[in-house]
Design brief:
The complex is a heterodimer of chains A (547) and B (494). Chain A is mainly α. Chain A is built from 25 helices and 3 strands. Among the domains of chain A are: 126 residues, no CATH class; 111 residues, no CATH class; 61 residues. Chain A is globular, with a radius of gyration of 31 Å. By secondary structure, chain B is an all-alpha fold. Among the domains of chain B are: 144 residues, Serine Threonine Protein Phosphatase 5, Tetratricopeptide repeat (Alpha Horseshoe), CATH 1.25.40; 67 residues, no CATH class; 80 residues, no CATH class. In chain B, 70% of the residues lie in helices and 2% in strands. Chain B is built from 24 helices and 3 strands. Chain B has a 3-stranded antiparallel β-sheet with strand order 1-3-2. In chain B, β2 and β3 form a beta hairpin. Classes of the chains: A mainly alpha (547), B mainly alpha (494). At the A-B interface, α13, α14, α15, α16 and α20 of A face α22, β2, α23 and α24 of B.
Chain lengths: 547, 494
Amino acid sequence: MASSSGNNPRDRIAACFGRLYVALSKLEVLAEVEPVMDPILASASKLDVALLETDEEEYEETALKVVSALRKAQLPDFNTLQQYLQQLDPTTLTIPFVFILSSLIDSTLSEQTSRTLPQLLLPEGKLWPEITRVLLTFDQVQVRYVGAQFHKIIDTVYTGAEQTGNFVPAIQLIENAILRLDHTSSTLTISHYYFVKLCLYARAYNEAANILNRPIYHIPTSEATKPLEKRLSKFVCSPHESTVAYINPQTGLSGRITSRVYLEYYFLSALCFLGMQNWEKAQEFLEVVLTTPTSQNVASLIQLEAYRKWLLVGLLIDGEGRELPRSVSTNAAKHIRALGKPYECVVDAFKSNNMDTLQAEINEGIQVWTDDGNYGLMTEVMAAFRKFSVLRLSKTYAALPIEEVARLTSPAPNDAAETLNYITMLITTGAVQAQLTPLSPKTQSASLGTLRFLPSTTTQKSEAEVERELAIKTAELQILSKHIQDYDHQLNVNKDYVEWLQKAKKARDQEKKAGDKSAASKPFGIPPGSGMGMGLDVDEEMMDDWN
Amino acid sequence: MAEEEQVKHIKPRYTVTVPDAPKFDLQSYIANYKGRTVFRRLYLIASCSTVLREEAARLAVSEAKKGQDINHYNDAVTLLGSVTSSKDTKDLTDSAWLSQREKQNAAETKRLENELKQYKNNLIRESIRMGSEDLGQHYYNLGDLGRAQTSFSKMRDYCTTSAHIISTAFRMVSVAIEQKNWMGVQSQVNKVRALNLKQEEAARIQPKISTAQGLSYMCQGDFMEAANAFLSTEFTLGDTYNEVISSNDVAVYGGLCALASMSRAELQSKVLDNNNFRSFLELEPHIRRAINSFCASKYSQCLEILESYRADYLLDIYLQDQLPRIYEKIRTRSIVQYFAPFSRVTLQSMEQMFGTPATSSASSTAAQNGSTSTTSPSTVPQFQWELISMIQSGALDARIDLENAVLISHEEFPRAVMQQHAISTVDDFIREARIKLLRLNAVNGGLDVKPSPKNAKGKDALAGGMDLAGMVDTGNEGFGSFQGQGYSLRSGRS
């Protein structure tokens, strides 16, 4: 055990734990385990921060050795092992802890005939305290060596939550695990997918935002990360610039990301934002789904669902429908647009600025909206129409009587009192920047009051506010540009790209040969074999893609 | 056949009725023109003006008799029959003349066609060109515009000198103008412009080119370009282009187009201080007065002058279609210019200044608004309604305060607008970049949606890709959870 010496905090914790261990070691059961585990634990305990800082190579070797020793070790029966696990510290000894826990899960599952999880893996179950402990306090470096096993634990938590309907502890555990592994949460993992799904089940939209608001920059599929392996000559344990270096299918930490998981993750996230009524974010996420590349002549059903919601959300944001992003593949667009027709009709009716048309269009398709699960959004659209009608008035009028507002925008043009209530609601929620003044003494009519739109000066931001906002944006842009550069590097090792380079070079060589014969030199030709010319071409190619 | 088409083409054209007496004298007005345009102008006046119709129709009949176009004659006689106050309408048609004319025309056509055939056999280019020209001109005189155009365009192939090209172009311009084919006019003008001409030659044709161009721009509704073209017309035009346009017309068209499109400073420098155009304006002094009063901010005076000439201009062959738009634009611009120096003006004082909009422009405004908004203009005072539609169309940057009945200028703070713009641009960029980056990631990671494994053998477990054909009937199983989610979302919100 590591309890004998050392001043650093971890060692001290380990020392405490060691004392506990001594007290308990009197129990006989443990006598069985000790001979097997002690040597492994001895080497596992060497894996501390000090070693990581001084000698990464040694750290990596030791870690791998521990893992292979654990694989070979004859582990005792379930009960013994479980009691033994209770005394291990999941922080200093993450590797053995995760490994043993996952083998315990395995053995319970193998006894199980049905697909449901046994009681002891569920919250309040026998193994639950261990599961909680490790997910809350695992060591983020050690865990990289037991990614697959770690992943199994998360899997168990997720399945258990689905089974019991007790979502809250699972949401908290998975959220913590994601952030502990990668505080930027910039690499997509299966855990993200589990997390957002559970949040939706639990309607914990605001809790979901903490993860969803951190943009994803990497998607670790084996196609994407395999070519990188050779480039990353560093060790798994080294501090990496981007988290995808260790959260990938090779370490097992990411789980297997498929096209389906990817689409669903973004679609479900968008649903979360819809639940929060954060239309802008929802739109962004839906657009990710829409722009997912498609091969051949197909489109995903999820994309269709996304398109329907995306159309409506566009109306909710600014009352104007918008064009499909250009990066949506034309074939896919053709399919989803054909099936999204009723929704496009609603958008057209909305844009026609005619309330009756819109109402008729929405009534016409009630069955469709209900079947698609979009009825709720439709009612939002109807409400938004009235709101934007009032907002549009501010472009023409500085002030106008409530009766006039009712006549121009209300579904019941003669019911000024109802409009008054509605306007009051809009003003109090901040949707409209305006004032209501009671009957002015000048006018003799029996008006209920006047709606006066506030000039834009009153809503203007102060200089300091703007400056702060700009600073935030600058920082965001810097992060983004760093990721773009990273990605540019990554694409350099892409197989297709390398092939393209070869082809381009061949073509250029041929051209050069032909050129040498005809003209001695062109004034602005690319100098033969110059890397510069090549680099420039590449940049242009990239830019084309971006545009 | 083509002649029949033409008849149909002319007759439904004039739906405007002008009850007021124009200020011009018909005889002297029509003396300004020559060629086919004389008849067409007379015919228009006879169809539209209630005051002048009989006189104009009689003149049209006698004019048609001078020419070769039988359809003109027939049209004119029919028209005269319908407008004349004398009871004797039977003997209007001179059938002897008609049949003689018909014979002559047919004979002439045959002669010219034969001649051209001969020339073609002889392969003498110059003769072919002249033959085609004669034939084209003959068709033109007969009013068979389609064939005239074909002849003239054949003639182009045999042109050898720039003078030939110019004369061909002008003949085609005449045809195109009568057909109201303004793009055709434009393209002919451009062809002439592209020629490399001697200075004297260029100076000689400049007025005709400019007016033809101006006319085509004006009739297409591009008043700014039209104004520029008319303003650059040299006064040497005189009566050289009487078959299309007179110098008086240039003054009127140029002046109106300029009023409809230019700022006060531009009007001053490009129109009033333009020595060349001043000569034109002297022919139509009231146009100069209108422009002067616009520049001097006396908008109501300017509008009054123009209004008093409305009848005249509605009887102009080219202006008739465009006049309501031109007047409306001038009125809109007057209101905008009037309001420019103020931060707020009472609606009452503005209404006194401008009065209610004239009938024709008001009805067109109302029609426009009826289509864009659900409100009925009847409940809103007309002038206020005009302002509202101006604001909504973006012409007037102001807001109406109905409580105090004032028009308030819209204030913006460039700095704040700029800052807002900068921030939203950055936001859009970040958003866009993230989406694109993810897409790149997905492409690179092989995450594209693929057909379901059922349809594509050997492609395993890419469950996200369902092809749509299969999805319609079977897709629901795989998708149930989402639909359920949709429902729960709804109940979650309401």
